[in-house]
Specification:
The chain is mainly alpha-helical. The chain has 2 domains: 11-71, Homeodomain-like (Arc Repressor Mutant, subunit A); 87-212, Tetracycline Repressor, domain 2 (Orthogonal Bundle), CATH 1.10.357. It is 69% helix and 2% strand. It contains 9 helices and 2 strands. The protein has a two-stranded antiparallel ribbon. Helix 6 packs across helix 7 (135-161). It is elongated, with a radius of gyration of 19 Å.
Length: 214
């Protein structure tokens, strides 16, 4: 599992954390990630988390005030894992359009197809479950999708600045199409576990990106 760090790892409730405390906190987050991925957020109880971590309520609440607080830490860990898979060695790729192709392939074949999370795409599953249930949590996920869209937008602009993008390409339309296609493939794959969905989507999106090239 990818290394997990976030701004709250160095303190609980404002105080310093021992090495043992950091290990316990990490264990809570890792076990909760597994539970949320498979059972969903609402179907996972505090009792489930206690059973998975072998902690008492006091031990758990010494690190997190609520199940929602655990979820935010879980989300951060899921993002770190996703980034570690999807953007591995990406800095070595100088061509921004090739970067998009490799990101698409890694997201679908390595992140989703690799069974990173047992329940499928953690972010899409959480967004579906939490929409209409928790505005703050669902908005948190949406902001992640927006950040990804902005990254694709920057790469497309980089390609345009380098004279590699066709003059008539609408960047907003392009990155929207890519993100929507990725999420559609993730939803279908989660429901069917059919690798053809991933392979066909990768091939279609690669072809689409190549058509943008001047």
């Amino acid at each position: 599992m990818a290394k997990y760090t976030n701004r709250s790892e160095n303190s609980f409730h404002g105080g310093p954390v021992s090495d043992k405390g950091m290990q316990t906190r990490r264990k809570i987050v890792e076990k909760s990630l597994q539970l949320f991925s498979v059972k969903g957020y609402f179907n996972t109880s505090i009792a489930d988390i206690l059973a998975a971590t072998n902690l008492t309520k006091g031990g758990l609440y010494g690190h997190f005030r609520s199940k929602e607080d655990i979820w935010y830490a879980v989300y951060d860990m899921a993002v770190m894992i996703w980034r570690g898979i999807v953007f591995r060695n990406m800095r070595k790729v100088s061509d921004p359009l090739e970067r998009i192709e490799k990101t698409v392939e890694a997201d679908l074949k390595e992140y989703l197809g690799g069974g990173t999370f047992e329940g499928g795409c953690f972010f899409l599953n959480m967004l579906v479950e939490l929409s209409g249930q928790s505005a703050s949590m669902s908005k948190h996920i949406v902001r992640g999708f927006i950040r990804f869209s902005k990254l694709l937008s920057r790469w497309l602009q980089e390609a345009a600045d380098a004279g590699r993008l066709k003059d008539d390409v609408d960047s907003r339309e392009a990155y929207d199409f890519i993100v929507i296609s990725l999420n559609g493939a993730a939803a279908l794959y989660s429901a069917t576990r059919d690798p053809k969905i991933l392979n066909e989507t990768v091939n279609q999106l690669k072809q689409y990106v190549r058509q943008l090239r001047k």
